[in-house]
Structures are given as C-alpha cells and as structure tokens.
Amino acid sequence: MRTTFLGYETGRRALQAQQLALEITGHNIANANAPGYSRQTIRMEATAPYAMPTMSKVSGAGMVGTGVQVTDIRAVRDFFLDAQIRNETANIGYWETRQDLLQEVEVIFSEPQEVGLRSVIDQFWSAWQDVAANPSQEQYRQVLVQKGQELADTFRTVFNQLRDLRTNIRRTIDSKLVEANAIFGQIADLNRQISRVLAVGDNPNDLMDTRNRLTEQLARLMDVDAQVDQNGIMTIVVAGHTAVSGFDHDTLVPGAEATDTTTDNSLYRPVWQSTGQAFAAERGELGAYINANTELFNSYQSKIETLAQTIIAAVNGQHKQGYNLTNDFAGQYEFFTKIETTFAAASIAVNPQIAANPWLIAAADPATDAAGNPVPPPPGDGANARKIADTLSEAPLVGGSRIDDYFRGIIGELGVATQESERLAENQNLLLTQVQNQRTSLTGVSTDEELINLVKYQQGYNAAARLITTIDEMVDTIINRMGLVGR
Amino acid sequence: MRVTNQGLLNSILLGLQRNITQLEDHQSRIASGKRVLQPSDDPAATVKILDLRSAMVEANQYKANCEDGSDWLEQTDNTITLMETAIQRVREIAVSASTDTNSVSAYQALASELKQIVDGLADLGNTKVGDLYIFSGEAVNTKPVVQEADPVTGQMHFVYKGATGGQASLVRQIAPGVDLSINVTAEDLLFGASGLLPSLEKLTDALTVLGSDTSTDAERQAALAVVKGDPTASPPAPGALELIGQAENEVLRLHTDVGARVKRLEAAIARNDAMIDGLTKLVSKQEDLDVPKAILELATIDSSYKLSLQMGARIVQPTLLDFLR
Fold first, then answer.
1. CA A341, A304, B42 angle in degrees (round to 5)?
2. Chain A residues touching B47 at Cβ < 8 A
C-alpha cells in the first residue's frame, strides 16, 4: 500500500531541484562575462523508484516514481583545447614582446630617416673631403671636428640606448618573476583545496576555473605544460623544470649580473631556487625577454661596437701617418679617443687636443726637405685627409665589407626580424582568437540559452508548486471532507 | 557550432581592432607621405634607401669638389688670358726693339713699358682666390712670385717661392679614386720651361742699357746681342723674340691644358648632377607613398571599418529579453 503523503515528498524534491537549477542558471548568467569561466550544467535524475511491497508478486502497476534529484553540477571542460590555448598563449606572449622590443630598437636606430648613424657617417666623410680640398682654411677643420663629435655622440647614444634597453629588459624579467612565483604559489594552494573538495565527492568547478585561468596567465610568461592527475592535482612543468608538484612549488630568483664587459650581461638568466639551475624558458614573455637580452647584444650592440672600433682604428691609423699644420707638425695625434677598459662605442670622443686646436688635424702627407729631414707640410696639402675619406668610403674594413655596407646589413637584419615578429604576432593573435572561440563555443555562457533555461526551470518550479497544491487539495478531501455521513 | 556571447563579442572586437590598426597604419603613412617609416615596413627597400642616400651624399660631395676645383681653374684660366695679352705686348716691344732705327729715348720708353709689364706679370702670378695664392702649389699661403737680390750680383730679380716637386700640385677628388690637379704653378708659367720672367728681365736690362746716354759701346753691343740674339756665340744665343715665342708657346700649352681640365670638371659636374637627379627619383620611388593609391586603400579600409561597426552594433544590442514578456 502506498503512503498518502508520497506526493508531498515528490513535490518537495521537484521544487528543490528546479530551485537549484534556477540558481545554477543565475550563476551562469552572473558569470557570462567572467574570463575563464566555464558554464555549469546541472544533471537531474529520477530518484529510486518505490516498489510496491508484496508477498509474492506485484499487485498493481509497476514501480512508482518518487520524484527527482540533482546528481551532478558539472562544468563543461575540454582539456585538449585548454592545452592548445596555453600553447598559443605562450607563442603570442613571445612574439608580441619580441615585436615591441624590436620596434624599440628601430626607434633607436631611426633609419631610414636623415638623423641616424648612416647620415652622420656620411657627413663625417664629407667633412674629410672638404678638409682635403681646403686644408688651409680653419672653418673646414672646425666643421670636421664638429662632425667628428656628432659621429661620436651618435655612436654613444645608439650604444647606450641599446644598453639601457637591455638593462630594462633584465629589470622587467626580474619583476615578471614575482608574478610567475605568485602564480606557482596560487596553483599549489588551489591543488590543496581542489583535492579536498574532490575527496568528499563534490565538483570544485569554480576553483578549477581559477586554476585554469592561472595556467593561462602563466603561459603568457613562459612555456607551460600542465597535467592533472586523477586526484585533481595539477603538475606544472615549465621549460623542462617541475615548478608545481602537488602542494609544493619552486621559486624563480633573479640571476647574477655579470661584471665581464665583453658579454655585457648578454647571458643573463634567472635561476631556480631549489636547484640553482638556469631558467630555460624559450617562449612566453620571459622567453622573449631572455632571448632579446642576448640577441640585441649579439646582433646590434656588439656590431655597433665593432663599427665604432673599426672607424676609430681606420681614422686614427691613417691620421697618425699625416702631418698637421702646427709647430708639432709630425706629432702622431689620435683623431678619436676611447677608454680602453670599456666599450669603444660608449666612450668614443674626438681627441680634446684636436677639438681645441683644429690645426692639429693631419690633413697633409709627410713632407721632407732635400736632405730627407721632416719639414712642415705646405698648407694646401690635403692628401692625408683624402686618404682618410677614401678609407672610410672604400676600404673593406669590417669582415671584408665597407663601413656603410656593414651598417646597412645591420639595418636590413633588424627590418627583417621586426617584420617577422610583427607578422607572427598577428598570426598568433588570429590563431589564439580562433582557439578561444572554439573553447567559448563549448564552455562559454550563452545568455540566450540561459534565459531559455530560466523560463524552463521557472515553469518547472511553478508546476511543482501546483503539484503540491493539488496533493494538498486531495489530502484535504480525505481528511476534512470524507466520512461526514450522519454528522 | 554553439555561438556564445563572449565568443561573439571577441570576434567583433578582433575585427574592429584589425580594421582600426590598418586605419592607423595608413593614416600615419599618408600623414608622413612616406611608404617606409621603419626598416620593418620594407627591409629590402630600407637597405636600398640607405644605399641610395649614401650615394647621394657622395655625388653631392664630388660635385662640390668639382665646383670648387672649377672655381680655381676658371680663375687660373682668366689670369692666363691676361698674361697672354701681356705677352702679346711684350712681343710688340721686342719687335720694336729689334729694329735698327731706334733712338736712345725710344729704347728708354720701351724699357720703362717693359718694366711695367714685367711687374704686371709678376702681380698676375700672385693672383688669389679668397686668401689663397693660386699659382703657388700646395703652399697656398706663400706669395709665389717675389723680388729678391741675386746673391752674386746683388741685382734685384723675380724668383719663384711657391711649392715645387710633389707639392706643386693641388688636387681635388672628382670621383671615387679619381684625383684631378686643379692648378698650374707660377714656376711653370713664368719661370721654368717658359722662362718668361727671367728672359723679360734680361731684355729690360738690355733695353735700359740701350736707353741710357751713359752706356759704353761694349755695353751696347752686349745689350743688342741680348735683344737680337748672337748667332756667332757657342752655343748660339737666341734673340728676345725667339725666347718670347718659346715662352708664349709654353703658356699657351698650359692654357690649353687648363681649358681641358675645366671641360673635364664641367662634364663631371654635369654627370654628378644627372646622378643626383636620378638618385633623388630612385629614393622617392623606394620611399615615397603612392598617395592616390593609399587614399583609395584608406577609403576601402574606412568603409569596412564602418561596416563592421554597424554590424557589431546590430548583433550586440538585441537579446532574448527584448522578446520575452
């Protein structure tokens, strides 16, 4: 025999299930715009049916249903797409950062505008030509001194700006480490919380969303490999090193600054605190920064240094072979000076003696009298200045290239590298958006869908309430109205 | 494919972002009028532009060198023309002096005129461009033709004081590796091979002797030998006319040479001008924006930007709520 009041229980269960479903719908709507939120779905199941008690066989119609229950609140998730997004995020972090850095280098060189190094090298050559033509006139010598100073200034500016850019890069790396370490810590914490919730059989959907979002933040910084085991614990391996394992995490610390002037800190890398090993990120923003610190030195800074050294050596070498128009006519003055213990491009300057007295410029060839003794050269002799100009424009001084060819090579390389990073950053952006769209199409909230759910569950709730009213009326009939015969 | 609000918004945003990036890019190009603002805009063109700019600086410099040299040579040319006029007059004087009918006073007049001409020629030899002596070789600050007492006789005569030998030539580079001498020295013109001033000084002295009442017969005889030459001497001494003719030929030869060099410089200037012109066009071709084309492109991008804005606005606004009661 069935209980009279079973209907109340069925109604209650229906009300509760519909209410919960409404709440989940509300949660989805509320998080419609939350980044990294995966929409949650509710699973309702009929509760265990109530079998009619009987001695030997069923005396009525089959098993009687007892209502509904919510068995699962599950977030929609696709681990494959998550991994792909992390992968593309690391790529875009790399290429966008690289693009920004190379564009800064382009600004430093300011080519092909008429203000760059090429322009001052050309003007310096012209000034030598003018002195070669008019060695006896002071104004041309003064212009030459000025152009020499401009050349030295431009070398120092370009070199120091590249150096400053690289110093900033290293400071940025160090500050990004703080962000990365915080994420390692948060993921380890979340591992603990998630494993506890899972242990009692619930789904920690929102915590997992948060953890997933953190891995994507991390992927922007470096190459991330995230694996989740059956206990819900995520292991993070970055650049071949296990950063988060279980509830523990490792920490990245700033590397040591080298004091060696030949490398100028181009080999800088942060290290892992636990092992002291160098951090080997190849992708993500950190990968780009670490890479750029090396590359900007090798491809630009050290080439500018080579160029400066070459020009100093070429001009000084030829200059010392000539005679000037002072009493110390055969004095072997250097045109450019530099500080030997540092980079030539950072310390190049016009010899202060020459700057103070342009007559010291050795524009003339050595002169001798009939007996072969050195004598002051005639003031109109500009042969040595002409030789210096020829050296600057024609001689294969740098690895078999002329100075301007070598410089053009640097700029060409910069242009190609920047163009490549711009193109790849844009491609990556498209690719990432595509994968993200794929994921949002699966896991994202559609407000239309949620609104329909809202209506659906509300109607369900209303119907369940009506059920209770109906049962109540039925019971009222039995209790209050039945058996009134003879009263 | 399930479409979600976030996915939809992301797509719209990405589209707008791409459109507006292109707009900004085109705008900055049109504003600057340049196609290549950064090496990455077109690396190959950038390298080309740098190359062309350097070539342009070179061409301008060589042109300036040529023009500077040309100034000197033209001044030289003009001065030599004046010298030739003077030599013409000297020849007339020598012809007059060679006739046998001259009176003492006529010789005197010829002597004093010749003296003026000699001084004039010496002055021409000291011509300057700006502050610089043009006939002095590399010793541009040294006056090339000066009067000096002969160490033996004590007589005053003109000597060359400018640069000689390897220092005699003033050079301008008119093309890579091409040096051109832009001067002649007073030594070549007035002394040396032409021997003009020494010959004229001798003639002046002879005419002075002939124009003097106090000269002895022996002195007169010697003076006439200088004027007319002495075929009996060993070797035979040439007469003044012959010497002047030699000098004139030498000066003329130098003049022709100067003229040839002026022509050569003019050709070099014209060549450099043409080169600068060509290079300017090439740089512009590499660097400058095809403005009509860019504006057309801008219009296309602009309309597609507006389209995507309009479309986005239509898609974003309505929700199911507008239709639920």
1. 165
2. 408, 411-412, 415
